[in-house]
Amino acid sequence: MNFLKTEYDSESDDSLEKSMSLIASAIADPSRVSILCALMDGRAWTATELSAVADIAPSTTSGHLSRLLNNGLVVCLTQGRHRYYSLAGHHIAALLENLMGVSMHTFKSPTTRTPTHLRFARTCYDHLAGELAVSIYEFMLQERWLEAGGSALTQAGKSHFQRIGVVLNPRPRRKSCCACLDWSERRFHLGGEAGSALMTFFLQKEWITCTQGYREVNLTSSGIIAIYRLFDLNMG
Predict the structure, then answer these.
(1) Span 15-41, mean pLDDT?
(2) What is the DSSP string of 28-93?
(3) Which of 18, 55, 204, 233 counts the highest number of beta carbons within 10 A?
């Protein structure tokens, strides 16, 4: 499995203003936005799959992917004869999440335009977002599983994660824990390595289910019981 080098990597000497304008220009197309939103589920997709999601011709999709690739928004990896595209990292997912929040903003009611099926629970790249995630985050703060501001798990938090079976990476390549602003709730949910580990645990226990290509997360009947038991949240 090999990563393709992007042109953007060699342009570190560009001015900040030029770099920002290039990224903004790369995003400023509905088809490319559709591609980026599809990749927000955290998985890698082929160009053919992405063309179906964006409802555009494969040849057009190839051009859009090249633009996103060259501006460092996506990466391409090869496996055998196939090429798969994914977001370039968690920082790109966070950028898109914030842009979604700005786009959905309305002064009268910040949440009325948020689709109901996404507001309750959805993926934010590789961790949970929505009402469910916000409620879990607030429980963790109240029970002092998290440091103030969500910057790290406390020793109590690490112990509780270990007790329930959440496996944390002892040497994460990114923030071990962080507060991620939820665009529909305008409050924080758990991000970073801890947020990813928690979602992975929920999936392994089959407490939640996800559908490839969609950000919606469904809570199973066993998940409702388990989340009430662990986080004192009544989701029934």
Answers:
(1) 88
(2) -SHHHHHHHHHGGGS--B-HHHHHHHHTS-HHHHHHHHHHHHHTTSEEEEEETTEEEEEES-HHHH
(3) 233
With a pLDDT cut of 90, the percent of the chain lying above it is 50
Residues in the chain: 236
Q: State mean pLDDT over 158-179.
A: 92
Extract the runs of DSSP E, i.e. beta strands, from the chain.
Answer: 2-3, 74-79, 82-87, 122-124, 127-129, 178-181, 188-191, 208-210, 217-219
Q: What is the spatial distance between Cα 143 and Cα 87, in angstroms, rounded to a whole number?
A: 34
Type of residue numbered 23 = I
Residue pair 50/44 in contact by the 8 Å Cβ criterion:
no
164 and 100 in contact (C-beta within 8 Å)?
no
Q: What's the mean pLDDT when you consider all of the chain?
A: 85
d(C-alpha 192, C-alpha 137), whole Å = 13
16-27 vs 58-70: helix crossing angle, rounded to 10: 160
Query: What separation in angstroms does the CA of 64 have from each of 36, 56, 119, 136, 165?
Result: 10, 10, 29, 38, 41
Tokens encoding 233: 């949240």
Q: Which of 189, 191, 196 is nearest to 169 (CA)?
A: 196
With CA atoms as reference, report the closest residue to 76 among 41, 37, 50.
50
Residues 62 and 70: beta-carbon distance below 8 Å: no
